[in-house]
């Protein structure tokens, strides 16, 4: 998963982009990068590591210009580390172009192979470079009935061609000359919002990024919409045939920050409703509801309120450790769980506890947490998951493990219960999950339902593990 941010029309563009991307750190912690432009020259800084450690004041001084785009990365396609950090910059016959991208292109390998066989060279192993290689291929396409503004006539037919060739999930931001371009794939898999601060326009994967710069959310980029911003204003294009939407429901379950407005709703409200719905589907008797922080906090509040039960912090989080799942290897992830959470005896001793977490993927985190709770004296442990069993890998940008690694594919409910060591285990139903979002038919829930919006046979991306 990745986070992207952008600014157009501010002399503080790179500083704002830095602050925005800092608030999207939860979307990726492997690398960070910023490109800025004064309309003529693109300057880029990208490094492995987290935003605050990796980007220095002198970098921001160097990143001059009124336009900036930024990226945090957790690799899903392509190698990890600084080599594939974004923005990706490529010299094209339209000048230098920089891009940041969140999502996964499912036809990455075949398309890259096709271009390579025609002599196109690639500098990176990430799928994102494909956009720029296609833009530079000289091919053009104008969808029927599309009127192109004179200022966009060199660029847009090329971009439309590129977008007709790539398939899968993408929200992107691009700098081409004096223009900033924002786009979302026609399914709308990944979120992307537009904000305002004075005369400047802001862009971000999640609206929480606008708060960091005291900006405000204006609207979301619509699925299939391409926005072009330059001195002449903002122009909106819809080059694709209308597709069924497939916004990622896992953004609501886990990925997005609760204070973000995505897919037409506040993530907080949906996440809390997941907890409420879980409570409505549950009959267990207990003394206290505790969340697995941070991801379980909001659904646990919903659960406790619905059941009129006490909500307590039975696990305390050390805030100086990052998200556990997001480490690339299992060994590191395991260590991180222990570093991250401690049991709170004041709440747990002698109690029957309902533990709420957002999702169960491999099951390793829960097993360790349950151990902790037992050691701290919990009398009964009832694990409740505010989403259905994860049964399908994601090909659209969320780093779920392979099908075989998913615990729900390897074990029955009873076996999972034994494995993680709880007295009872219950998941939210698929129907219950679907009932928590406004327009259920506009969502992709393939990881829970195995109903893939793009047929799985078409998927030929390289998965890192
Ligand atoms: P586990 O069951 O040990 O694989 O860990 C599951 C926990 O990791 C969940 O409770 C989430 O909080 C978090 N998580 C689930 N999916 C992801 C993901 N794709 N990326 C990062 N964290 C995740």
> Could you say which small molecules are bound to this protein?
adenosine monophosphate
Based on CA atoms alone, the radius of gyration comes out at 22 Å
Contiguous runs where pLDDT drops below 50 for at least 5 residues: 461-465
Overall mean pLDDT stands at 93
| Shape descriptor | globular
Overall description:
The chain is an alpha+beta fold. The chain has 2 domains: 3-243, Aminohydrolase, N-terminal nucleophile (Ntn) domain (Glutamine Phosphoribosylpyrophosphate, subunit 1, domain 1, 4-Layer Sandwich), CATH 3.60.20.10; 267-438, Rossmann fold, CATH 3.40.50. It is 28% helix and 24% strand. The protein is built from 17 helices and 23 strands. The protein has helices spanning 13-22, 51-54, 57-62, 108-117, 129-135, 156-165, 208-212, 249-255, 267-280, 297-307, 330-340, 345-348, 364-375, 407-410, 413-420, 430-434, 446-449; strands at 2-8, 31-37, 42-48, 67-73, 88-92, 95-102, 171-176, 179-184, 193-197, 200-204, 216-220, 226-230, 233-237, 247-248, 261-262, 265-266, 288-291, 315-317, 341-343, 352-357, 380-385, 424-427, 443-444. A 7-stranded antiparallel sheet has the order 3-2-4-1-10-9-11. Strands 5-6-7-8-12-13 form a 6-stranded antiparallel sheet, with helices on one face. It is globular and about 70 Å long. The model is unreliable at 461-465 (pLDDT under 50).
